[in-house]
Amino acid sequence: MSTRIRVLVRPKDGILDPQGVAVERALPALGFEGVSKVHVGRLIELDIEDPGQLHAMCEKLLCNPLIEEYEILEDAV
Amino acid sequence: MKFGVIRFPGSCDEVDAVLACERVPNASAQLLWHGDPDLHGVDAVVVPGGFSYGDYLRVGAIARFSPVMESVIRFAHEGGLVLGICNGFQVLCEAGLLPGALLPNDHLRFRCRQVELDVVRASMPFTADCADGEPLSIPVKHTTGRYYAPPEQLESMHAHGQIVLRYAPGQNPNGSLDDIAGVRNAEGNVFGLMPHPEHAVDPLTGSADGLKIFTSMAHAHG
Q1: How many domains does chain B contain in total?
Q2: ipTM, 2 decimals?
Q3: Domain boundaries, position B127
Q4: pTM given for the model
Q5: Tens of pLDDT along B120-176?
Q6: Which residues 6+ apart lie within 8 Å of A52 measured at CB?
Q7: Closest to B181 measured CA to CA, from B125, B109, B95, B100
């Protein structure tokens, strides 16, 4: 029995996110106004038998805690 | 002196690194396969540039767990000399052997050009053949080279003299914090840099300044 999990990884607050800046600049050029604080991260989807391992997995491989933060979403799929 | 140069799937500068090591008088070099934990008795390890394991997930993140890297981490903890170039620098940061991390260039573009560097600190194994403040001309070629360390870590690095190379004023190609181009660990036996000294070993191709990094390692080894 495994659980479907989504892990969201995003750049930490205060660290320049040039991908977010590029997207934020591109939107007004297409006529979409009023968008700010855009950040681009990663979505990792996985099936896991023991969700208790998730935090260790994130700290060790899926996320670099020095520059990124993560959020674990269950039952989101 | 025997250099070992790691070859990961996706490495692309390991052969140039071997050729650079072989230009050091009385030195030899051999490739080390990523899946083989045996370091074959080498005296120093070079982690080369490229796109190890496709740079999937994050640059250097998967390579850091390869069998050879587990041995390199032990080798470094025992005081062995380890040099990381570009992707190798990223791998050493991910492995926790060097402080900080490398982020995407602030302009998001690939940069491939000669840069001028200042040697901040010459009195350590990797820059002993340079003088303090000596300018070096060495190429960079990367998309993910923006050095970052949190403020408290950066302060400790300054206190321990761990900032070894800086981009000269106006030369920073990627938005690196404090123009940092190369750093070492607190003990001084592990060094990583984004520029490619192995591509600057012959005046015919623009500069031989990079060779000083490899000859310094040989002198440190004795």
Answers
A1: 1
A2: 0.87
A3: 2-221
A4: 0.94
A5: 989 779 999 999 889 999 999 999 999 999 999 999 999 999 999 999 999 999 999
A6: none
A7: B100
Report d(CA A67, CA A47) in Å as an integer. Answer: 26
Q: Which tokens in the block code for residue B152?
A: 């408290």
Q: In what side-by-side order are the strands of the sheet with A42-48?
A: A42-48, A3-11, A68-74
Give Cα separations from B76 to A15, B11, B29, B73 (angstroms): 30, 21, 18, 5
Determine the Cα–Cα distance for residues A31 and B147; give it in Å rounded to an integer. 35
Q: B148, A15: Cβ pair inside 8 Å?
A: yes
CATH number, domain of B188, equals 3.40.50.880
Q: Give me the helices (H) in A1-77, please.
A: 18-29, 54-57
A34 to chain B, closest Cα gap in Å: 23
Q: Which helix or strand (DSSP H or E) is residue B153 part of?
A: helix B151-159
Token pair for residue B40? 């074959």
User: Helices B211-221 and B14-22: crossing angle, nearest 10°?
Assistant: 60
List, for residues B122-131, the tens digit of each pLDDT value: 977 999 999 9
The encoded tokens of residue B117 equal 């560097």
Of the residues A16, A21, A25, A62, the best mutation for testing chain B's interface (the one with the most B CB atoms within 10 Å of its CB) is: A16
Amino acid letter at A28? P
Using alpha carbons, select from B84, B78, B14, B101 the residue that is nearest to residue B45: B84
